């Protein structure tokens, strides 16, 4: 097939995937998750276990070693049908602790230790490198098999160039979809859906080739069995050690591979999906493996002796003249490679940004943890990490020469990630596992793996000199990379697996037995091991009242995004019986907030950032007792008492607040009465005085005109004041006539800005607007809404005390509501006054007699209530900020 | 909930009893799986010279299919009743 057509079809396929991802993302944004969160999608997304290694490499593996390839799929099958043991617990922990990656899980389990996060991240990146190289190699190979020079002399580029293009394209796709936003919990619906589609494509492609081989090239299953018996691999050699070792390694890898952890735990939307996946995922593996041996046998039979068995899936249909089938197989292989690379690089990038970039940044500029734009930094570091990870994969591909069998490369990665297994499994089942033990075990395992398997994979003399392989380093024979401690008869892979796992576990257990865990570590350990034990109270550690809620809000907005942070804080405040956006910083609230932040930046970083604001987390004796099993039941009882007391406190707090408000209102009312009489009296006095002068007569005409104007102005002022009062009472009674119609929000804001410019016209304001977002048509009473806008803008003009005042008007549409935020850059409104500003007659400063009787915001609130919307004060925006929310379509109320 | 301190009942009602045994079955399944998959090691195909790829392959695929079928049955019966064990204060491994 001509090379350019091949490239075109690949591009078309990628664009199709893009469309799928985009559509799913849009659906998810609108909150219509529906089938996006079905067990089917979950199971299909798990199939990224089957990479190009399965698609191409399994046939090559079968052609070389018979049935041994099955271990790679039987191992995960055992883990999945045994989901009740490990997977169920992992998923529950992942959801409860909002784990973002396997590094986060391990670091969080061992006291939110960042050291462990770094170790896991480094191992994962290094172990993923050969795996990504494998994908690049298989795609490159398939290109070179498939592509033929065209007639006009356009020949395919060399394999190196293809690999570069593939790596670059994948990086681009991943960055575009994997790092679009920083989710509250690292879930990517678009990517997961695209991967589910790719899973279907690769399954159909492989089965299609298999059906073609068994029923069209051979005469059905019976004939196929006869051909297997007649083939070169009719007698396979089962090596017991390798058979058991590979079962173990594959079973470990399916839990420990960063990408598997990502789709299995992090992207899991519902624990019940795991129950379905426990049989459906093995079924998928079963279907993928069913035709591997027939394809391998037929390839060995029909294709010339020197043909690369790794490419049989592609070359067999090609040799039989089945161009369409070969194209399908090619797309299947392409799917396998791309889906793996995309998810793996997202998972690794999350780990790198959360466990390496963020902590370094926090260490370097602690002050900016609160104010700086963390989101942009995190996203940028993830984008760069994706590029780096793919770059490393490409470098490995170049260094290893791209000639090794696919299966051999894949197994190197499997043994590498299996080093997480002891820390993870002991961590979730044994409370005695400690941070130092985990760090020791993983480091030892990693070093042994690198020395015995990873570095030798580059070939003799590439990294390790050939002499070391023969005589050992410095002539120490028992340290030879392929024969540690003189064990020279073992298969190299098994040798590396055995020694790395043995030394890893030994170091881990020794370290755990000899060290003593810190308080946070012990609490996390208890929370992880007893995750199903619902009676244990959630561990606490933050002291009451050390952090200002407004500071916490500002920090959370930087990480979670303005909208999500405000929603979270509002819900928390409501839970405490408070209105507004600022809950009390109780230990429970702080713990929930920390867990929420951990969903974005990882447990260790979230903990460190909270400590910046709230001081060090302390663990009291009571907290430790609460998680100790001996006293759990006594504690449970007292916890119930405590929660009752908590409720009483909450009610008391609500009452106290109500009382405070009433008192203040009463004082205000008195103040208003005297003020309103004053306000009425002043114009009355001047009207009376000037009209007396006028009645005396005998005045020059210009003086008469002047006095007349003064009387007229004062009368107007009186009318306005009375109008306001009337307006307010009409609005409060709900008898107001609304004049509904469609109007453009942008025009309304234009009108409001024009009218409000008469207030303090000498002050020049810089207005920031977002015109494209404003272009919304709203069905509402435009005049009333504009009245609210004018009031807010005039207030900003009157009270904003910045030297060069600015006003930002931002519009957002969410669900059926439109919110308009007015944020200025002044000093804002003090916290204790925020509750009062919407009350009638409230004026914050008596000095600022800017006219008006303090009715503006009260009228605004009533107008908004009549328009079915709200107006609220937004704390923590760096100035006075008001949010107006209106329904997109206001329906006329009956009656 | 009863007043603390609360001791778990010695004998369970039938629904809970069946529920526990289904969980035991779920725990047992991978053990059976490992045993059946390691079984080919016993007849050590490496020393033989007869053609054993096809029969071994069929054996492994049949075992595989049976395991999947059993896993499906067990997970379905567990899934429907996952959270409503009236006698369970919490699930703490093999005990009770």
Descriptive report:
The complex is a heterodimer of chains A (895) and B (96). With 895 residues, chain A is mainly α. Chain A has four domains: 3-148 and 158-421, Up-down Bundle (Sodium/glucose cotransporter); 543-611; 655-732, Orthogonal Bundle (Helix Hairpins), CATH 1.10.287; 741-887, Heat Shock Protein 90, CATH 3.30.565.10. Chain A is 66% helix and 5% strand. Chain A has 35 helices and nine strands. In chain A, the strands form three sheets. Chain A has a five-stranded mixed β-sheet with strand order 4-6-7-9-8. A two-stranded antiparallel sheet of chain A has the order 1-2. A two-stranded antiparallel sheet of chain A has the order 3-5. In chain A, strand 6 and strand 7 (817-824) form a beta hairpin. The longest helix of chain A is centred in the last third of the chain and has 65 residues, at 632-696. The radius of gyration of chain A is 35 Å and the shape is elongated. The model of chain A is unreliable at 150-154, 535-540 and 846-850 (pLDDT under 50). Chain B has 96 residues and is an all-alpha fold. Chain B has a domain at 14-43 and 51-80. Chain B contains two helices and no strands.
Structural features:
heterodimer; A: about 900 residues; mainly alpha; Sodium/glucose cotransporter; Helix Hairpins; 4 domains; five-stranded mixed sheet; two-stranded antiparallel ribbon; elongated; B: about 100 residues; 2 helices; about 55% helix; disordered N terminus; disordered C terminus
Q: Briefly, what is this?
A:
Chain A has 895 residues and is mainly alpha-helical.
Topology (SSEs and partners):
The complex is a heterodimer of chains A (895) and B (96).
Chain A: H1 3-29, H2 39-46, H3 52-65, H4 71-81, H5 87-96, H6 102-109, H7 114-146, H8 159-178, H9 189-217, H10 220-230, H11 240-256, H12 258-266, H13 272-290, H14 292-302, H15 312-319, H16 323-364, H17 368-371, H18 374-399, H19 406-417, H20 421-429, H21 435-454, H22 466-471, E1 479-480, E2 483-484, H23 492-514, H24 519-529, H25 549-560, H26 562-575, H27 587-601, H28 603-614, H29 621-627, H30 632-696, H31 701-733, E3 741-744, H32 745-756, E4 766-769, H33 771-774, E5 777-780, H34 782-799, E6 806-814, E7 817-824, H35 856-866, E8 870-873, E9 881-887
Parallel strand pairs in A: 4-6
Antiparallel strand pairs in A: 1-2, 3-5, 6-7, 7-9, 8-9
Helix pairs in contact in A: 1-9, 2-9, 2-13, 3-7, 3-14, 3-16, 4-11, 4-13, 6-7, 7-8, 7-16, 7-18, 7-19, 7-21, 8-16, 8-18, 9-13, 9-14, 9-16, 10-14, 11-12, 11-19, 11-23, 12-16, 14-15, 15-16, 16-18, 16-28, 19-21, 21-23, 25-26, 27-28, 30-31, 31-35, 32-34, 34-35
Chain B: H1 14-38, H2 53-80
Helix pairs in contact in B: 1-2
